[in-house]
Amino acid sequence: MFDKSIYTGRRDRLKKELKSGIALFLGNVDAAFNYPANQYHFRQDSNFSYFFGLDNPGFAGVIDVDNNKDYIFGNDVDIDDIIWMGVQPLVKDLATQVDVENSFPYNDLAGFIRKATGEGRSIHFLPPYRGETVIELSALLNIPNAEVKPAASVDLIKAIVRLREIKDDYEIAEIEKALLTAYYMHTTSMKMAVPGMVEQDIAGTIEGISLALTGPISFPVILSVDGQTLHNHSHHNVLKEGRMMVTDAGSETALHYASDITRTVPVGGKFNARQAEIYQIVLDANMNAIKAIKPGVPYKDIHFLAARTIVDGLKAAGLMKGDTEAAVQAGAHTLFLPHGLGHMMGLDVHDMEGLGEDFVGYDETVSRSGEFGTAYLRLAKKLKPGFVLTVEPGIYFIPDLIDKFRSEGKYFDFVNYDKLETYKDFGGIRIEDDILVTADSCRVLGKPIPKTIAEVEKTMAEPREWIKREGFV
Ligand code: GLY
Ligand code: MN
Ligand code: MN
User: Fold this and answer.
1) Contact partners, residue 157, CB within 8 Å, separation at least 6
2) Are 221 and 203 within 8 A, CB to CB?
3) φ, ψ of residue 442 in degrees (nearest 5)
4) CB contact set of 353 (below 8 Å; sequence gap of 6+)
5) Quick one: 99 and 245 in the same domain?
6) Which end of the chain has less neighbouring CB within 10 Å, N or C?
7) Mean pLDDT, 10 residues at a time, the chain of 473 residues
8) Structure pTM?
């Protein structure tokens, strides 16, 4: 964990933001996958982790704003636990590690909350995303399960977004650790993309690299030659020359900070002319977007800059036509880019998404579009120094979407459907980087991962060597 002063500082800042009441944070509990003792890898709740740092299942944290006191509720292990898990630190010692003076057995939490509600004090809590948390909040607050999520505190959500959206230097350092692992995951994936390999061979290898170097993957690996499916988690295809392989994967550090990188490479290591042409358009969109990122610019504008770059490129490739601005206004680009340009990243790979995307990516100056494709834009508001976000443009040839739009008579002024028919076997391309907004521009985080056509071809031609432990020791 970070130094204890970091957690105290975060809790103090939350008290200033929230002004009154009690903030209740339920940490996550162990979850079984096929019988009680066979459990998923434990992942702490990100908000609990942000304010209380501890990685123990079944803990709760309380920030009493009115009385300027912090509490940890959790149980010491018993002899049965010690037999199976070894000796564990006492809860009071764990609490001290994160500068919390008050620690109590978990069962005392119900009485604490009952007393506070009896005194008419506000209990602020966050929207739960696990069934166990819904049930626990329902019992603690004495409200039905169905009413728990709607009763979550908007004041607490907004206060936390204001804190977590600005990353400190020590958080950037963690993200860059996760990115160094992503470097090895992605360069390995590139070198394994040879004809005859099965996607699962590569997906399994890079998941292992993540585990070996930093921790679990930050989201299930997306790896496929069917890159037109945006989040493709099936890895059964055998790689063949002439296809492109999308790898969208990242790692999580021991402190739970994420990386999220996408690279797309030609199976066999050499781009053919058609692949190079489409790839270069996506790369231009990625790089134009990055060049334009600076504080004060709404991310929605960067999204549309990338969309215009894609339309310009597809016009040059003979797949689109007409006026670029008019095509984007009409939404014709969404046939090829049916998702948003990016999202915040930090303790969650889609940072704070559990608090509600509209609280994280939007504000009073910008509301979510209802239009197809653009509605998936997760971040639209003005950028500030300290934001960490992804830039992930793509071009996808989705046969069902092409057929749908064509049959609906959509965008005939902007799309050359006859030529597009010949691209239905192409797949998709996405190129994703993780970016820090700085005082006057931005910085691409992490050790550069091959991205230009020349860099990708050079890397794919290099022998696959076992990972150097650079930066990890
Ligand atoms: N890893 C999923 C995404 O790029 O948003
Ligand atoms: Mn991604
Ligand atoms: Mn992403």
Assistant:
1) 126, 127, 355, 356, 359
2) yes
3) -160, 170
4) 343, 360, 378
5) no
6) C
7) 98 97 98 96 98 98 98 96 94 98 98 97 98 98 97 98 98 98 97 96 97 97 96 94 98 98 98 98 98 98 98 98 98 98 98 97 95 95 98 98 98 98 98 98 98 98 75 57
8) 0.97
Q: CATH number for the domain including 391?
A: 3.90.230.10
295/298 Cα distance (integer angstroms): 8
- Predicted confidence at residue 473, as pLDDT, reads 46
Whether 160 and 309 share a structural domain: no
Examine the domain organization and report whether 317 and 401 are in the same domain. yes
Q: How many domains does the chain have?
A: 2
User: Are residues 145 and 232 both part of a single domain?
Assistant: no
- Please count the CA atoms within 13 angstroms of the CA of 100 that sit on its side-chain side: 26
CATH number at residue 79: 3.40.350.10
Atom of ligand 1 nearest to the CA of 349: 1
The DSSP letter of residue 298 is B
Placement of tokens 């037109």 in the chain:
228
Ligand 1 lined by 71 (C-beta under 6 Å): no
Domain C-terminal end among 164, 190, 222:
164
Measured from the Cβ of residue 85, the count of other Cβ atoms closer than 10 Å reads 9
* 3-state DSSP of 410-446: CCCCCECHHHHHCCCCCCEEECEEEEEECCCCEEECC
CA distances from 229 to 339, 396, 403 (A): 12, 8, 15
Ligand nearest, relative to CA of residue 231: 1
Range of the domain at 126: 4-164
Asked whether residue 103 falls in the same domain as residue 185, the answer is: no
Distance between CA atoms of residues 148 and 133, nearest Å: 10
Q: Which helix (H) or strand (E) holds 387?
A: none
Nearest-atom index, ligand 1, CA of 248: 1
Read off φ and ψ for residue 436, nearest 5 degrees.
-105, 125
232 and 108 in a common domain: no
Q: Are residues 70 and 204 in the same domain?
A: no
Instruction: Give the distance (Å) from ligand 2 centre to CA of residue 442.
Output: 19
**Ligand 1 pocket: which of 218, 432, 433, 435 to mutate (most atoms within 8 A of CB):** 432
Residue type at 278 in one-letter notation:
I
Exposure class string for 387-403: b at 16+ Cβ within 10 A, else e: bbbbbbbbbbbbeebbe
Number of Cβ within a 10 Å radius of residue 262: 25
